[in-house]
Structures are given as structure tokens and as C-alpha cells.
Design a protein that fits this description.
The chain is an all-alpha fold. It is built from 15 helices and no strands. It is about 80% helix and about 0% strand. Keywords: Membrane, Transmembrane, Transmembrane helix, Transport.
Length: about 400
């Protein structure tokens, strides 16, 4: 095999699967542990949201650091820090979880940027969308088995099993991570010429979220959609028992399996030509709205609608991120591409964090069901952004093409 499915890239995908396995377990264990300790949904949301909120802060800087020092050197350092974070989960309580979530968030900022930018630099244009899609697929694949493992660990009543799993994942991830290699395409060498004062460059790059029409639109879409994804991850483990026949493990497994299947089966259909595909993206947002509505109404209707929501949200999650990332990899200025893609991914991180931090108080004041209906309304706002008049073609020149 060659291209995105060649052996060097398969090793990167295996590393991705191992790295995100811990989080698929933690996404279930942390809410359950919090509820058992009697803490509020607001507190649970803060602990859950701290992970990607930290990732968001460090992601743009990660793009610069990786450009200067290379993805492999950065990758090896952050894998050691990640191992430390997983050990904290093993030996400390909920208070320690917050510290570990922050450390893990820093690691994820550098890990995901190192692999995604490495894939973008190493693959030719025609294979780029497939590489990004398969990477993203592997980051969600642990969601198929992770929730089931987490529920099993929780039901045993022995947190030592959970602690051991974190240690094993840390060791395996470190071992595989120290053996991977990432080589850049010859024509890409020196393509990203980002130099100068890092602080000034970062402020300039952040201004592009407003000035750059391509980054502004994609960032807005990803922010709102990710808020819905984050609310699902944070509170489905607590919402599912309110639904007749509902199971958080089954829901999360269905959603993750759909993400994996859709990203693999549909990877060649994701646009990879630098064009804004309004029908494709609009249809994806419609599935997100429908899925959120189904989850919100499931408390009154039953588990069939609940699991239908998992199917629809899973498809939306599978398609939106790789589509927008690939599009931006073509239309952003090459000299700033690493940093600007880092900012875009940071909007996804922020959205997931807000899903826990903001929607936690909303669910405390109202209910889980009403909170998911609010998510559907936010999805409608995101769809209105996607369905605005077609974006202009070609690279950004500083004018508003949107």
C-alpha cells in the first residue's frame, strides 16, 4: 500500500488510537465519579471542559513550536508528559483529575498538531484529505470500546482496575510514539516560513479569525458544532438513565462506531479541491441539528430516538472536521498555514469545552433534555453560517470573499 495507507502512516494511526484510548475511558469515568461524590453538573462540566480548554490555549503556539523543532522531537517530549498525566489519574481523586486534565490538554495540543501537520506536509495534495480523515477516524475509534470498558470498570467497584488501565495505556503509547517517523514531501520543505517574534505573530494570527473570511466561517461552524459534541460527551452518561431503555455506553459506542465507519467509508468523498461545498456542509449541519433534537426529545419518546440521535450526530462529527480542515489547508496562506490551522482546531477545542462548562449550568437550571434542545437551536445558527453565499475561490488575499 502507498499514500495515506502506507506503513509509516499506519504507525501514526496506531499511535493516535492508543493516545486517545485513555480519554474514551475518562469521558465516562469522570462524570460517574463526580455524580457519586455528589458534585454539581457545573463542577463536572468544568473538570471535563478543562481538558480541551487548555488544548485550545496551547494549540496555536504548538503550530509554531512544531514548525521550529519538527514534529518528532516535540512528539517524544509530550508523550512523556502525557504519561505523567495518566499516572495522576491512577493515584489521585477528583481534585487531582482537574490537574491531570490540564496536563493532558497541553499534551493533546502538541500531539494532534504534530500528527496533523506532519500528515499535511508528508502527503501529496490528492491524498491529504484521506490522511486527515483516517487520523481523525483513529482518534474516535477508542470511543467504540472505551465506554464499555469504563462502565465495566465502574460496575466492578474497584478503581484499581481503572488505575491499572491508565498505566498500561501510558506505557504502550510511549513505546509506539518513540518508534514513529514523519518525512516531509520535498516540495513542501520551507513552505511554511513563519519567523519573527512569537507573541506578535500569535496576536497577528488571532486577528485572522476576524479578518480572514475562510478562517472566520470555518471557525464559527466548528465552534458551534463542537459545543454540541462536547455537551453529548459530558452529560450523556448522566442523562441516559432518565431514558427508558437508555444506556450511555451503548449510545457512545454507536456514535463512535458511526464516526469511524463514516470516516473510513466516505473518506474519498470528502472534498479535497479547495472549494467550498455548500450542499455537502449544509447537509452535514442538518444531521447535527436533527441528532441534537432527537437526543433532547428522547426522555419523552424513548431509547429508539436516543440512539437515532447518536447515529445522526456521529455522521455529522465524522464529516465536518476533516472537510473544513482539508479546505483550510488549501485556501490559507502557506506562510501562516500551521499557525492558522492551529487556531481553527482551537475553535473546535473551545466548543467542546463550552459544551461542558456552559451547558453544565444550563442543565442544572433546566434539564438535560432542554439543554440538548438548546444545542439544536445553536446548530441552526451554525447552519445559517454554512449556507451563506458561496465562498470565493483561490488563496486568501486579505479581502473578504465571504
Amino acid at each position: 500500500m502507498k499514500g495515506a495507507l502506507s506503513w509509516p502512516f499506519i504507525r501514526l494511526y496506531v499511535l493516535t488510537l492508543l493516545y486517545f484510548s485513555a480519554n474514551s475511558i475518562l469521558n465516562v469515568i469522570i462524570p460517574l465519579q463526580g455524580e457519586a461524590l455528589g458534585v454539581t453538573n457545573t463542577t463536572i462540566g468544568i473538570v471535563m471542559g478543562a481538558y480541551l480548554l487548555t488544548t485550545m490555549v496551547f494549540r496555536p503556539w504548538a503550530g509554531q513550536v512544531i514548525h521550529r523543532h519538527g514534529p518528532i522531537r516535540v512528539l517524544r517530549i509530550i508523550l512523556m508528559v502525557n504519561g505523567l498525566a495518566l499516572l495522576i489519574y491512577s493515584f489521585m481523586g477528583l481534585g487531582g483529575y482537574l490537574i491531570a486534565r490540564v496536563l493532558q490538554g497541553v499534551c493533546t495540543a502538541f500531539f494532534s498538531m504534530a500528527l496533523q501537520l506532519g500528515i499535511i506536509d508528508a502527503l501529496p495534495d490528492k491524498d491529504r484529505s484521506q490522511g486527515i480523515s483516517i487520523y481523525s477516524l483513529c482518534s474516535y475509534m477508542p470511543g467504540i470500546f472505551g465506554p464499555l470498558l469504563a462502565i465495566g470498570m465502574w460496575q466492578t467497584g474497584e478503581m484499581s482496575v481503572f488505575a491499572l488501565s491508565m498505566v498500561v495505556i501510558a506505557v504502550l503509547t510511549g513505546f509506539v510514539g518513540f518508534t514513529v517517523r514523519i518525512e516531509r514531501q520535498p516540495e513542501e520543505r520551507g513552505g511554511d516560513t513563519t519567523t519573527g517574534n512569537p507573541v506578535k505573530m500569535m496576536l497577528h494570527a488571532m486577528g485572522q479569525l476576524v479578518r480572514n473570511p475562510y478562517l472566520r466561517r470555518c471557525g464559527m461552524l466548528m465552534l458551534i458544532a463542537s459545543l454540541v459534541f462536547g455537551a453529548v460527551t459530558a452529560f450523556v452518561p448522566l442523562y441516559a438513565p432518565q431514558i427508558q431503555g437508555g444506556s450511555a455506553a451503548v449510545y457512545l459506542m454507536i456514535q463512535a462506531a458511526v464516526v469511524v465507519a463514516a470516516r473510513f467509508l466516505l473518506r474519498s468523498h470528502i472534498p479535497s479541491d479547495g472549494q467550498w461545498n455548500t450542499p455537502f456542509i449544509g447537509g452535514t449541519m442538518f444531521m447535527l441539528i436533527s441528532g441534537s433534537t432527537a437526543v433532547g426529545l428522547a426522555a419523552n419518546v424513548g431509547s429508539a430516538l436516543f440512539y437515532s440521535g447518536a447515529l445522526l450526530i456521529g455522521i455529522a462529527q465524522a464529516l465536518l472536521y476533516p472537510t473544513l480542515t482539508t479546505y483550510l489547508s488549501f485556501v490559507l496562506p502557506k506562510a501562516e498555514r500551521n499557525v492558522l490551522i492551529g487556531l481553527f482546531v482551537a475553535t473546535a477545542d473551545l466548543g467542546v469545552s463550552l459544551g461542558g462548562i456552559v451547558m453544565g449550568p444550563v442543565s442544572d437550571i433546566t434539564s438535560y433534555s432542554f439543554m440538548y434542545l438548546i444545542c439544536a437551536i445553536l446548530g441552526i445558527l451554525a447552519a445559517s453560517v454554512a449556507l451563506q453565499r458561496r465562498m470565493g475561490r483561490g488563496k486568501v488575499t486579505g479581502t473578504d470573499g465571504g
